[in-house]
Description:
Helix content: 25-40%
CATH class of the largest domain: Alpha Beta
CATH topology of the largest domain: D-Maltodextrin-Binding Protein, domain 2
Structural class: alpha/beta
Number of strands: 11
Number of helices: 11
Order of helices and strands: HEHEHEHEEHEHHEHEHEEHHE
Distance between the termini: 24 Å
Radius of gyration: 19 Å
Amino acid sequence: MIFSNSKLEKKTTMTSNSKPLKIFSTLAVRNVLNTITPELERVTGRSIEFDFGATVQLCEKIRAGSRGDIIFAVDSAIDALATEAILRPASRIDLVSSDVGMAVRQGAKAPDISTVEALKATLLATPSIVMSKQGASGLYFAQLIKQLGIEQEVLAKATVLAEGLTGEPVARGEAVLAVQQMSELMQVSGIDIFAKLPPAAQQSTIFSLGIFKESTEDQAISAIVALMRTPAVIEVIRGQGLDPL
């Protein structure tokens, strides 16, 4: 069992008549939050309601009027929502960083992406690629192929997902190569994650926590932040391909 610390096992009474804590979260940390949900509910004494999606989609929903207590999202999005007075000013807490990786169908031969030159050659030679449209990795990858001068060639054979996990079509045999955050690739069975992008072509994304201006759940939020810093949760974070900050 991951959470074996005696302090983590101490019971907390759930307040049955209180509304759930509402958490918006990017897909990059979905598996982490799903894994630690029992502990989130224990330390807060509340049930948790999640709304998962790409950061861009979450921000669109929030700007249209949806509200919650906290959001886990790309750091720049947290800053933007704070500037717009949707989140509390200076409430951003950086939690994890993630690198972009690539995967093939389980058992398939892994191509070479060890250098920028090898990456470029692989992208040109690969018959089909899946990338995300609105996630941090998809936005960066679109910028990267443009910088490499192969934007038209790659997009001509790419499946661009509006939402979801790029590894899923690859696991089904519908495409050869998936590109996404390491933590998102790790949520898919039936694929082999063979490498991260080479250092010269890599962009680490920081995922942070922000607090909604209207939230009155300071005590519960403080308990969540403290939980995210514990050794047990840090182990979960690392196990999902993320680096704790």
